[in-house]
Amino acid sequence: MRDQLKTEAEQPPAVPGQRSVVPSRVPAPVKPPAARPDHARPPEGAADGVADRLAYLDAATRRINSALDLAATLRNIGRVLVPTLADAAVVHLRDPLPNVEREPGFPDELRIHHSTGTRIGRRGRKSGADDRHRSRFGSRSTADSGPATPVTRGGPLAHILLSRRPAESAVLGTPAAERTEALLRELYGTRGLARLAAGTSVVALPLRGRKAVLGLLVLIRRPPERTGRPAFDAADTATAAHLATQAGLAVDTALRYAREWEIANELQRSMLPLRLPQSHGVRLAQRYLPGERGAQVGGDWYDAVPLPGNRVALIVGDVMGHSLTSAAIMGQLRTSAQTLAALDLPPHEVLYHLDEQAQRLGREQHLATCVYAVYDPIANRVVLANAGHVPPVLVRPDGTAELVELDSGAPIGVGGVDFNSVELPAPPGSALLLFTDGLVETRTRPLSDGLEVLRSRIESARWQSPEQLCQEALRILPPGDRGDDIALLGACFDGIPAGDVAHWYLQPRNETPGRARRLAAHTLRRWGLDELSEATELMVSELVTNAVQHATRPVTLSLVRTARLRCEVGDDSPLLPRPRRTGPEDERGRGLQIVARCADRWGATRLGTGKVVWFEQRLPQ
């Protein structure tokens, strides 16, 4: 990458993983080599003429190298060339754009990616397609505005792309322009060439990257009788060749930057869950929007973890900073949060252990904000804890929305922080929206205003699903590029009716498995699920028998009817049962094999106070 980049205000500051290069001053506007109204240049060898041309080359070089985005780089190339050096400029790049990390080989096709001052070689475009890229000189930048031009081996286009000869200018309509006219005919066709009047001066220059040729730059000066400016001379051609060299390197850098940004963005997305678990009693939806390329890769994440008792843990966090390190720290914290959530620890305990974990990640201090919530659809309650994160929005069943005022505490990684949990009612019909600060805080809107705008938007909008809730939240984003990435997690709470839940505490005695079978059978008859009674009684008996053998406290038995029948058996022993191979004469070890054969799904979860073994069955049609 270039070492002395001066970034424009609207352009990305640095390649992901590198520090931004802050310019000491904004480059001065590019001036013509000679500031004379009639475009006449000073006498050759005059000191002021040489000084003007050197100043122009210096300013133009800095302008070309001031951006890392490809579209911005092409616009800058057009601005420094037109109208100072040429009346029009056309940039052709390889199609498709190559991977500049490797040798791309011979170019198969070229396509116009930018033109300034001319529409040669372009098809008719739809209005508004690229108007935002137009300048007062008619600049347009788009990747698909012109047809692709095949590069014929041995043809004029291939010759100039591969040639190492010094650049030469040509005036159309003269005998010396035969080769240039053949090149233009191959690029734009006979009709395109006919649009250029006799006396037009043309310079065609290859754009070379660090490993291969990337495209072609065509500069045009219209006939002198129209503009009062003479054709390209040797000094103009040398100037154009120097700027074409800089332009080729700048395009190469922009392509490398785009590839690195895509790799970093893909890395972050790969660390986020592809889909959320759809637990019964709650509907979930998520959105993730990466920031603008200048923001590099961020550390926002979201997650949802199923818990025993049909509960679900909802997590949204944001690692401070924008770099590959932030994404890596995010991945480690997300993994730690999943592990801690699976232990069924209270939300404040989860944040406490995350805080300890963050202090052990690398040599530098890594800070992150996080909000952690656990929703219980049976009790219709939600428990939340916050570590320096923006407050979530809780929507009541009547549609009113409020920011949940939590003890925000300090970010994760500070150390020695006492986190607190808050329990709130979450009746059916309510919803919760967790998000990161990129949604509500922008360059022009402070955080407090953004939070109020979000609350008002959610309260006034009509939505019925978590997807619509997330979509309404995103509508508050102002137009334009985002300076930060955004993570959203929306949850609509439906709850589970009390009549669909049965729960018992059973003393660990020898007669307990028989009582558990009778309780399960009675409940299934009451629910009209007699078809599942035989298999359910058998599996309940096996799991309760195993729990009684290891428990020192009462065993829990739960049955929950939703779209499926779920049974959970819990005890205070942390030892998880494992299926094992049994022989013909073994009297023990077949319980889990029976469960695995009869149930649609089963599993075991270690808790902070023991374990839960569960199985699920499909309800009969």
Concise account of the structure shown:
The protein is of the alpha+beta class. The chain is built from 13 helices and 22 strands.
What does this structure look like?
It is a single chain. The protein is α+β, with helices and mostly antiparallel strands. It is built from 13 helices and 22 strands. The protein has helices spanning 47-64, 70-81, 156-162, 178-194, 224-227, 234-270, 324-342, 347-358, 447-460, 466-474, 512-526, 533-550, 591-598, and strands spanning 88-94, 109-116, 140-141, 149-150, 169-171, 201-208, 213-221, 282-289, 300-307, 311-319, 368-376, 381-387, 393-395, 401-403, 421-425, 431-435, 486-493, 501-506, 555-561, 564-571, 601-607, 610-618. The strands form four sheets. Strands 1, 2, 3, 4, 5, 6 and 7 form a seven-stranded antiparallel β-sheet that branches. A five-stranded antiparallel β-sheet has the order 8-17-16-13-14, covered by helices on one side. The longest helix has 37 residues, at 234-270. The two termini are 64 Å apart.
